[in-house]
Amino acid sequence: MDSRKQQILRAIITDYINTAEPVGSRTVAKKYGLGVSSATIRNEMSDLEELGYIEQPHTSAGRVPSHKGYRYYVDFLMDHDEALTDADRTVIQQTFQEKLGHVDRLINDTCRLLSELSHYTSMMMVAVKSKGTLEQMQLLSINPFQAVLILITDVGLVHHRIVDFPVPVAEKRLKEICETLLAKLKGRSIDEVNNSLIQEISGELHRELEIVDALFEMMEEGVKGSGEEKVFLDGTLNILNQPEFHDIDRVRDILTFLREEDVLKELLSSRSREGMTFSIGSELSHGRINQCSMVTYSYQADDNTMGTIGVLGPTRMEYSRSATLLREIAGRLSKNLDGKGKKNKRRYRLGNEDEKVVNQEEMAADLENGTDAEIAAETVGQTLVECLTAENESLIAENAALAKECEEAKEGLLRIKAEFDNYRRRTLKEKEELSQVAAGNLIACLLPVLDNFERALAHGSEQGLLAGMEMVQNQMIAILGEAGLTAVGKIGEAFDPKFHDAIAQEETAEAEKDTIVEIWQQGYMMGERLLRPALVKVAK
User: Fold this and answer.
1) Count of CB atoms within 10 A of residue 204's CB?
2) What pTM does this model have?
């Protein structure tokens, strides 16, 4: 493609991305200063349309990019290093500065950040690999009959469960139980716990088997969740803000697609090792989202690819900005995740006022050596409880936000449905009124014809009757002609099976072969629609 066509294609795509309106040659000439006339641009646009890079949605409209045009733009014309605004960088920096240890929350907040900055639907896929190895645990008393059992696995994920006791258990006893279990199970996975070890632990803690059973179940859950791919979504309702998706059926298709987690996993898995990818329209290979595009980028932890992050939006998406956001956010996420799976890098914040950060390995050493018991016992428990409390508050807030989003989506869909129903009823009413008006106008035009029929029949002579009938015929033909009726078939005209029906053939030297020599019944068209073909005799 020559440089002028490239400049015009870039201008059309840029303008359409910004306005969602078809782009004409005058708009390109006026707004983008290409130094050529609108006539020249119009000719170049015709060439681009023939090549399949742009399309004309309506006869009187400007042009819009095709999927092929977007692909060429992404591959050859797009600025891949678009700078973020200072406001964007500030929000990204603040978000990742606040993340200190909870992987799930980090992923959720990253997904939310991407959807808020891009205004599209964001998605992330992550697989956490773990052997379910016990690295730390804590028992925190709620009351004499209940305690919170907190377990930290080898990848730093926190599991917790409330355990009920049939008889009261003192805090001192909880500490003893915790020390006993850590001494026997720390550094072990559930697969390494044999029957003899279970019997040994059960014998020593036969009065607190509820705690033992809960601990083994949590270790098993850690293994079951290992390596399982999980998809995070945010900003699902952002599609309602795009003019392309105001059609309720199209919105329903996309929302249904986003609920199919297995399809999303397949879609993201196929792009997990390709760096930055752009999938446009039919390239997604899913019919329900063939009017969407997806931009994805893989992110890493400890030099290993951990998952894929991406955005889904209309084909008219801001590809350059989306790519820059993904590259920046994935880079920040990778740096934040580095070392999360190593126990000597796990960190927790100790309250809002005290900003001291304590290394988990040092805490474990304190527990084993009996040094600084206050930090080893009370502070570790306090820190984990604060993390869990913050997590629960965050989950409550997330659930409330999701409930609000669902309610707003429901209201939006109901509103769209009501508007569509009103539009349908209004259209049917207008159609009925137009039909009545058209029928009334036609009848009004035919009334003079009826008058002439009456006058012709009232005439006494045969000659007067014939003259009156000829006048009526000419008047009828003129009225129908004004309504758009045209005759089909003329003597001497070439036979065309689209408009003529041959009911006989005649050998004659006076007419060319396959031409009409006689019309038995006139054919008629209304505009471009054939009402009935002409019945004709054709020369052999």
Assistant:
1) 14
2) 0.53
* Predicted pLDDT at 375: 39
Which pLDDT score, from 0 to 100, does residue 351 have?
A: 32
CA dist 499 → 493, 535, 536 (Å) = 11, 9, 10
Q: Which residues of the chain have pLDDT under 70?
A: 60, 98-104, 127-132, 154-158, 190, 221-228, 272-274, 302, 338-393, 460
Please state, in angstroms and rounded to a whole number, the distance separating the CA atoms of residues 291 and 313.
9
Which string of b and e fits 49-71 if b means at least 16 CB within 10 Å? eeeebbbeeeeeebbbbbbebbb
Contact 162, 193 (CB under 8 A): no
Size (the chain), residues: 540
Question: Distance between CA 339 and CA 53 in Å, rounded?
Answer: 47
Token pair in block for residue 41: 């641009």
Q: Where are the beta strands (DSSP E) in 144-237?
A: 146-153, 158-164, 229-234
- Give the DSSP per-residue string, 93-124: HHHHHT--S-HHHHHHHHHHHHHHHHSSEEEE
- For residue 172 the two structure tokens come to 């001192």
47: left (phi over 0), alpha (psi -120 to 50) or beta: alpha
Tell me which amino acid residue 150 is. I
Residue type, 428: L
465 CA to centre of own chain = 74
Closest CA to 530 of 504, 503, 499: 499
Measured on CA atoms in the order 432, 436, 441, 447, is the torsion positive or negative?
positive
Q: Which residues contact 110 (CB under 8 A, 6 or more apart)?
A: 95, 124, 309, 329, 333
Closest CA to 364 of 188, 136, 140, 176: 136
Look-up of token digits 């603040």: 94
Cα dihedral sign for 105, 106, 112, 113? positive
| Coil, helix or strand at residue 48 | helix
Distance CA 314, CA 13 (A): 13
Residue in the structure block whose two tokens are 């009004």: 444
Q: Measured on CA atoms in the order 30, 35, 41, 47, is the torsion positive or negative?
A: negative
* Structure tokens belonging to residue 374: 């206050």
Beta-carbon contacts of 376 under 8 Å, excluding residues fewer than 6 positions away, are 363, 366, 367, 370
pLDDT at 491: 92
Q: Pick the closest to residue 238 from 297, 290, 312 (CA basis).
A: 312
Distance set, CA 46 to CA 49, 51, 55 (Å): 5, 9, 9
Confidence (pLDDT) at 355 = 34
Q: What one-letter code names the amino acid at 408?
A: E
305 close to 272: Cβ distance less than 8 angstroms: yes
